[in-house]
Amino acid sequence: MYIRPIQRTDLDSLCLMAKHSGVGVTSLPDNRQKMAAKLDQALASFDKSLPLSDRVYLFALVDEGSTELAGICALESSIGHGDVWYNYHVGKSVHASREIGVHKVTQTLYLSNDLTGCSEIATLFLMPDYRNNQNGQLLSRSRYLFLADFRELFGEEIIAEMRGYSDADGNSPFWESLGRHFFQMEFSDADYLTGLGNKVFIAELMPKFPIHVPMLTEAAQAVIGTVHPQTEPALAMLKSEGFEFNHYVDIFDGGPSVGIKIKNIRAVRESKVYRVGISDQTPAPDLSAKHGLLMVSNRELADYRVLLVHQGAAGEDPLWLNSAPAPILNVSEGDTVRAVSLRPKELSV
User: Fold this and answer.
1) Are 238 and 253 members of one domain?
2) Whether residue 148 is found in the same domain as residue 258
3) Are residues 177 and 207 in the same domain?
4) Which residues are catalytic?
5) Three-state DSSP class for residue 197
6) Distance separating alpha carbons of residues 18 and 131, to the nearest angstrom
7) Residue 47 burial class via C-beta count within 10 angstroms: exposed 0-12, middle 13-18, buried 19 and up
8) Which of 208, 210, 233, 324 holds its CA 20 to 30 A away from the CA of 343?
9) Strands 293-297 and 211-212: what pairing?
10) pLDDT tens per residue across span 298-326
11) Domain end among 264, 292, 312
C-alpha cells in the first residue's frame, strides 16, 4: 500500500467513495460533475497552474494489486478564498446585576469567517475493506511529510474540520434545534448543497446575531464540539500530532474544528531527511504491529509517494530500502527521502 497524487483515471473510484462516505462528509458530494471538478483542481494544483490560494492537493491510497483506490485524503493551501468559510465561534456572554445578585455566564455561538486563510487537513476517507493493517494511519499521517517538504505552499496555521454527531439515520440534533428553523430543509439536503459549493444561502438565511446556547435543546447542547462516532479515530490521530480544539464548530452539525501551527505538528517536527541505501537485508514491515513502522516519502511534488517500512531501516544515515519499496517510491541509491515514525512514541492511538 502506498500514497500517490490523484490521477485522471481515478474519477470512477472517487465517485464510488463519495457514494460510500454518507451524510456529513461535505468534501465528498455524491455528484460526478463536482467530483470531476475536484479532480481537475487537484491535477492543476500539482502542476502549479493554479494560484496558490486555490490549490487543493488530493492524494490516493493505492493497493498495488488492485485498480481501485483504497482511500483518499487532501490538503488545502488556503481556505475561504473561492468560497466563503463559515464557522460558529464558541464564546461567552456575561449577564450580571449586583442589585439582584445575578452573575450568569452563557455560552454563545457567533457566525464567523475567522479561519479564512488557514490551510486545511481535508477529505479523509478510507474504504471499509481497507480499514486494517495501519492503512488509516498511513492515509491520514502521510500528509505531514508533504507539509514538511513543501512549507512554502501553505500558511502558518492548519485546521481540520471534524464531522459532527448524527445518529444512525443521519439526523443531527444540532441541526434540528437550530438550522432547521432557518433553512426549512433536511440536514442531509443542506449538507449536500454545501458539498456542491452552494454556500450563498448560508449568508442569506443564517441569523447574524449570536445564538445563546441555553436556548437550544439539551440534545443539541450535548453535541456541540462532539464528533461522529466514525470520526473519533481520526480526531484521536490529530490530537496525537498536537492538534487542539480552537473554539470553532460547524454551523450545520456542531462538529469541532481543531488546529495547530504547521511547524509544531509532531510528524513535521520529528521528520528527518536521509540518503537512500539499497539493501535486501532490510526487514519487511510488520503491519499488524502498532509500533516499529516508519513513513517514508520521496520528497517529490508532482510524483509524491509515501509508504511504510520497518523502523530498523533508519540509522543515522542512510535509510536502507530493499528492492520492493524503492521502485514504488521511485528512488535510487543516493537519492534523499524524508522519514518519521508512523505514530508518536509515547502514544498508542
Assistant:
1) yes
2) yes
3) yes
4) 228
5) coil
6) 17
7) exposed
8) 324
9) unpaired
10) 999 999 999 999 988 887 888 999 888 89
11) 264
